[in-house]
């Protein structure tokens, strides 16, 4: 339960003798030594742990780290310090707990000097392959013809890439996965031809990618065939996988421009797949949300309706009846969509909270000016409330164009972006190097923690996503209208980084999923999953299973990204191996069909995830 619960420091209920000395008694199953910082509490049963159980009733303070049964909030030293202050006593009868040293705050590492093409869009297509999609421009990766590539399949193990040909311009397109794991890339921009690259128009394009492991797959498309086109031009289109498995394709502009205009607005939606004579459906909301309505954010809701956000506005929408259900209040503080781009995420779904859907929107820009400040505020809205309202919060620093990545422990990492300007070529400055992590379970005012900075500027056209191994893939940034290596404030960025969150740098063992997970699972199916927690003598196990989908990432928009906590019941135990009956999500409204990754966590430390298709 460490995952979704506030890991605020719990000071022991015990008011037993709190003296600690060098020769204090140790914790039984820790070789007679006091517990270490990573697993500070000596539990009732003599195991060291950082769980509520280990630090709760019966915990032996004397054998615990620093002589106190105190849970440690990984990566959040400020909360810890506050807690020490809060718990200093006035009567002088109890010693104040020693301050706990700061635990690591993650680390960035460059894993490749070249992604081959500028990473404007990414999609994790297999556990080891990232599809990286740019627009047509003079990238270093070259096709056999000698022309520059604008798509590569990046190998996450070798940190190498394979060039992929695509006929149409993918500039500022969208994407979504079908239930069988096939990726549909849709939309784009005008034809472009030069000495070094060529492409036909992609405004209406549909492209299909059937993932493979053997380097044989490529984009399937047929620009001349109306069946392979959307109903109209869609530049900056959003795509969301629906509970039915169809793709909901929304909005966009008829042409590429700095901000949408009445004359170019495409305020309609359509489905993929579609019959040939299909007509798109007009959505008044997409007119009312002008001009900041590009790359709207769309999430499915438990009742099958959609939540849609654009500009400052949001609406609950019924796809079947093609009607609005209701409008929600505007988020305070200004528009949060392109080009005043904020970060948007559906917080992880938890059965213990009746799968309530809460949306978090952070940052943006105060104006369409290169001198504008980024916004520092975030809004969070609980869609289960009778009368949903935005609860406002503040990030440690202002930011726009950040990526909101749901980490394996259910916290939200905000990284990349700028502190000044807005989205567009040469429009932002003052890059933000320091990521922050948001703990949805912490009390208001204590949710943000800053982590270690990168030293690479990643602003417009940068991306990030969680990998199956629990690290974060970080790439891209190109503020220039063409590839530039020099004589510009921010050259086109090809370096790829891996960010290791602090949950992978504790001394806790990573649990491992050791049983075979079926490639295809269905809703409410119970899977017997055996995990290996590697050690039983160090700490009390605290096990959580989560299922996540990464979706398609571009322009700070993580299309179809979501995570759900699974209901799991322990069925047997054999040494360090424990078997659980794990229930898949109850229905497709909570988790639409498609490719997913399942992690098990022990005391907040995630396993490597296993890929499965939920259908
Ligand atoms: Cu763009």
From TrEMBL:
Feature: compositional bias, Low complexity: 80-92
Domain Galactose oxidase-like Early set: 510-610
Stored Pfam families: Glyoxal_oxid_N, GO-like_E_set
Signal peptide annotation: 1-24
Domain of life where this protein originates: Eukaryota
Region annotated Disordered, chain positions: 80-105
Keyword Transmembrane helix: no
InterPro entries: Gal_Oxase/kelch_b-propeller, Gal_Oxidase_central_sf, Glyoxal_oxidase_N, GO-like_E_set, Ig-like_fold, Ig_E-set
UniProtKB keywords: Signal
UniProt key word Signal: yes
Glyoxal oxidase N-terminal domain ranges (all copies): 147-503
Name the UniProt record assigns to this protein: Glyoxal oxidase N-terminus-domain-containing protein
Species annotation: Lobosporangium transversale
């Amino acid at each position: 339960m460490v995952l979704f619960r506030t890991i605020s420091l719990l000071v022991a209920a015990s008011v037993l003798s709190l003296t600690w000395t060098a020769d204090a008694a140790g914790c039984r199953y820790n070789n007679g030594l006091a517990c270490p910082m990573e697993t500070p509490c000596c539990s009732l049963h003599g195991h060291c742990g950082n769980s509520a159980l280990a630090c709760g009733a019966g915990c032996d303070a004397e054998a615990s780290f620093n002589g106190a049964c105190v849970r440690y909030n990984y990566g959040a030293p400020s909360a810890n310090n506050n807690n020490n202050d809060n718990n200093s006593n006035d009567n002088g009868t109890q010693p104040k707990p020693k301050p706990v040293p700061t635990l690591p705050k993650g680390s960035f590492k460059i894993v490749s000097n070249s992604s081959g093409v500028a990473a404007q869009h990414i999609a994790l297509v297999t556990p080891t392959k990232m599809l990286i999609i740019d627009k047509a421009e003079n990238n270093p990766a070259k096709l056999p013809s000698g022309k520059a590539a604008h798509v590569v399949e990046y190998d996450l193990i070798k940190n190498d890439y394979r060039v992929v040909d695509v006929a149409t311009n993918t500039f500022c397109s969208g994407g979504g996965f079908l239930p069988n794991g096939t990726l549909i890339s849709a939309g784009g921009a005008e034809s472009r031809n030069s000495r070094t690259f060529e492409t036909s128009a992609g405004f209406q394009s549909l492209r299909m990618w059937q993932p493979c492991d053997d380097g044989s797959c490529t984009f399937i498309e047929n620009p001349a065939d109306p069946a392979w086109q959307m109903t109209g031009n869609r530049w900056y289109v959003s795509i969301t996988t629906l509970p039915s498995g169809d793709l909901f394709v929304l909005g966009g502009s008829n042409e590429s421009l700095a901000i949408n205009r009445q004359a170019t607005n495409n305020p309609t939606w359509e489905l993929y797949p579609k019959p040939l004579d299909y007509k798109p459906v007009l959505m008044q909301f997409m007119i009312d949300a002008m001009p900041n309505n590009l790359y709207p954010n769309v999430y499915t809701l438990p009742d099958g309706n959609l939540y849609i956000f654009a500009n400052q506005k949001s609406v609950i929408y019924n796809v079947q009846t093609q009607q609005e259900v209701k409008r929600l209040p505007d988020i305070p503080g200004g528009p949060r969509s392109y080009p005043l781009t904020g970060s948007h995420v559906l917080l992880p779904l938890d059965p213990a909270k009746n799968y309530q859907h809460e949306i978090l929107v952070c940052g943006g820009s105060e104006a369409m000016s290169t001198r504008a400040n980024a916004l520092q505020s975030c809004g969070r809205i609980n869609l289960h409330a009778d009368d949903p309202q935005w609860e406002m919060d503040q990030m440690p620093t202002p930011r726009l164009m950040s990526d909101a990545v749901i980490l394996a422990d259910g916290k939200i990492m905000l990284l990349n972006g700028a502190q000044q300007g807005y989205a567009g070529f040469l429009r932002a400055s003052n890059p933000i190097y320091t990521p922050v992590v948001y703990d949805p379970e912490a009390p208001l005012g204590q949710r943000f923690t800053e982590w270690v900075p990168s030293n690479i500027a990643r602003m417009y056209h940068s991306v990030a996503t969680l990998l199956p191994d629990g690290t974060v893939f970080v790439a891209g940034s190109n503020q220039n209208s063409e590839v530039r290596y020099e004589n510009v404030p921010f050259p086109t960025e090809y370096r790829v980084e891996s960010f290791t969150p602090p949950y992978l740098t504790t001394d806790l063992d990573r649990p491992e999923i050791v049983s075979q997970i079926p490639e295809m699972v269905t809703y409410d199916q119970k899977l017997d999953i055996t995990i290996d927690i590697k050690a039983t003598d160090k700490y009390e196990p605290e096990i959580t299973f989560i299922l996540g989908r990464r979706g398609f990432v571009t322009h700070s928009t993580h299309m179809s990204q979501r995570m759900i906590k699974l209901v799991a019941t322990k069925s047997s135990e054999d040494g360090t191996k424990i078997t659980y009956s794990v229930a898949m999500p109850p229905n497709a409204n909570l988790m639409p069909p498609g490719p997913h990754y399942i992690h098990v966590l022990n005391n907040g430390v995630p396993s490597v995830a296993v890929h499965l298709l939920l259908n």
